[in-house]
Prior knowledge:
CATH architecture of the largest domain: Sandwich
Number of helices: 5
Structural class: alpha+beta
Number of strands: 10
Strand content: 25-35%
Helix content: 10-25%
Amino acid sequence: MESVNQKLGNHLRQRRMEKQLSLDQAAAQTGVSKAMLGQIERGESSPTIATLWKIATGLHLSFSTLTQNLLPEPVSALRGSIEAERIPTANTDIQVTTLFPFDPTLGFEVMSLLLQPGSQSMSEPHDAKVTEHCIVVSGTLDFLLNNEWITLQAGEAIRFAADQPHGYRNSGNVPTFFHDIIHYG
């Protein structure tokens, strides 16, 4: 049975080959080194969420397209669950769970994120026309946009053009749980 890292590596290689990119070309497009991409493709590395985002953005893929079907039970097309498809990474400070993977007909994906106290996740710009909608369910989320941190409380939300650097930080002392709806315009 294939491990999660092997599935991710095979899927990444398949997507890279579909785009007819060499490892050198993929490295140039994603900003992830050729050596790291090779390690991921061979299933020898468990990349961070930030690295997965860089790869997805550089290859012009949605995040869930890159990470789809890594676990034995994918998310149902009609019903999501916060235990559905947690994306395993080396970074335990942030957990990303795909509730609804990218649907090309609708143009969006839905994820839940759990950010541990004192941790943060920075994101490179996504493609033009990508919009994110973040909804804080519990805890406090510091959100970086235009080089300014904005604090959101449980029940608050923000929508922004994701074609710019942005970040998420939990400066509180309890975990922050939020949903991220990403629309690929």
